[in-house]
Amino acid sequence: xxxxxxxxxxxxxxxxxxxxxxxxxxxxxxxxxxxxxxxxxxxxxxxxxxxxxxxxxxxxxxxxxxxxxxxxxxxxxxxxxxxxxxxxxxxxxxxxxxxxxxxxxxxxxxxxxxxxxxxxxxxxxxxxxxxxxxxxxxxxxxxxxxxxxxxxxxxxxxxxxxxx
Length: 164
Prior knowledge:
Elements: H1 7-25, E1 31-32, H2 35-48, E2 53-61, E3 66-72, E4 75-81, E5 84-85, H3 96-111, H4 113-116, E6 125-131, E7 138-145, E8 152-160
Antiparallel strand pairs: 1-6, 2-3, 2-8, 3-4, 4-5, 6-7, 7-8
């Protein structure tokens, strides 16, 4: 009996290649979040980021909703969650500056995960991020705690600012 070619492996390899290609086209796979990468992105945002913009995020993981944030002259002026008005006390967390503050807090939490996140050590915490190459704003964030079903993840699906 002749040996069959490994079609299953070939199909899996092709599919994997297509997925990697899509990630590259969308800005690449998120890499490990480090303080160095975060500082460089924030510096780029501070130098090039517009004071007024609209950003739309898709949440995944423990929260699954779509958030739209309008910022004018550095201040959030409106925010909706799935098209409904969001509580004003949450607005500041979702501006780009608020997202940078959030990512800095995530890095601090990883330093003491038993207290901050309820897991045994830093090796139990996976933090991934991707940043816009031109303006530096975060475009993707993922936090996964080993042994937990759901994590926290969001991705920018639209960013509108002057000239964009």
